[in-house]
Write a structure and sequence with these properties.
Elements (H helix, E strand, L loop, with lengths): L4 H6 L1 E8 L2 E13 L5 E5 L5 E2 L6 H10 L6 H7 L7 H13 L17 H7 L12 H14 L12 H14 L6 E3 L5 E3 L1 E2 H12 L4 H12 L1 H4 L5 H8 L3 E6 L3 E6 L3 E7 L7 H9 L11 E5 L2 E8 L8
Antiparallel strand pairs: 1-2, 1-12, 2-3, 2-10, 4-7, 5-6, 8-9, 9-10, 11-12
């Protein structure tokens, strides 16, 4: 990393680990909250910081695919927007997406992996990683299906200059109001578009509050099938089950987006990429939008007993 970027990336304390009443460690980051009108009502760290949003923008990628003619049932469309746990249901839905376009798993070019979920990975055992089991297989199934529908080359669907990726880039630029200048490669192999934290917040807010049919179809699919977007017991699925009209998605390296239609939007980027404070941080952030997220305390142990907890920093406690 360029040395000049390090101070900007460090941000402010968002999460604290407490042991017997003393702060033992902290996680820094950047967080932005928008109200129902898209106005910035709370900013911690730097809203202009340019980040890789990772999987947090899968709903936007899905919207571009729908706009390009991808027609799926809601359960499968939710999987296109997912970082799924890798259950049998998830894998079968990915195959169903492929079959809808006359394709099979051999068409997938995403990086092979084992299931993301703990119990799902345990059940996978010693089997070799596969593109179908990887958490991004729904997105990639949607990408190859969309390419097939439009007569675009399937082998090169991950290339930056592929027609589908250009449409995704345009969708993200339209929603964020930013021109994307930096493009990398995500862990799954798809193009990764950089934008500011403010641009990410704006893009998600506009997606969730849109009346555009492509955006509405993605929003409603994920709301109807939150278990397809992530998995049982995981923060994305459980938070959407609890809070009406919430659209949420996490991304690698500590990125989170959460937006309640008609109420507001929260985005953050953890400077160290940590996700261990996600539950308390999401609960504290959503309280600014008038929503209450119930979760089990994240414990800190000492000698086999609870001696503390992981909590959101006091910077999030002043609900305005």
């Amino acid at each position: 990393m360029n040395r000049e970027l390090r101070p900007a990336l460090s941000g402010e304390i968002l999460v604290e680990t407490i042991r017997d009443g003393m702060v033992e460690s902290v996680h820094h980051g950047h967080l932005l909250i928008l109200d129902e009108a898209g106005r910035e009502v709370k900013s911690i760290g730097g809203a202009d910081l340019v980040i890789y949003p990772r999987s947090a923008i899968k709903g936007i990628q899905s919207s571009a695919m729908v706009r390009a003619g991808l027609k799926l049932e809601a359960q499968e469309l939710a999987l296109v927007s997912a970082s799924h746990a890798g259950s049998q249901r998830h894998l079968e839905s990915a195959e169903k997406i492929l079959k809808s376009a006359g394709l099979n798993p051999s068409s997938l070019k995403n990086t092979p992996d084992r299931p993301l979920g703990v119990k799902e990975r345990r059940a996978w055992g010693d089997k070799a990683p596969s593109s179908l089991a990887a958490n991004c297989s729904g997105k990639h199934a949607g990408m190859v299906a969309t390419s097939k529908i439009n007569g675009w080359d399937i082998e090169s669907y991950k290339n930056q200059d592929h027609p589908l990726q250009l449409l995704i880039k345009k969708e993200l630029e339209n929603l964020s109001g930013e021109v994307i200048e930096k493009i990398s490669v995500d862990g799954c192999g798809a193009p990764l578009f950089a934008l500011s934290l403010r641009g990410l917040a704006k893009s998600i807010h506009n997606l969730v509050n849109s009346n555009d049919q492509a955006h509405l179809s993605v929003f409603h699919a994920c709301r109807e099938f939150p278990e397809m977007v992530s998995g049982d017991g995981r923060i994305i699925t459980e938070s959407m089950r609890q809070i009406p009209n919430l659209f949420a998605k996490d991304g690698a390296e500590g990125v989170m987006i959460a937006s309640i239609r008609g109420k507001g939007t929260v985005v953050w980027k953890m400077s160290d990429g940590s996700q261990r404070g996600d539950w308390p941080l999401l609960a504290a952030s959503l309280s600014h939008l008038g929503a209450e997220l119930h979760f089990d305390r994240v414990p800190v142990f000492g000698d086999g007993r609870v001696v503390g907890e992981i909590r959101a920093s006091k910077l999030l406690s002043d609900v305005s």
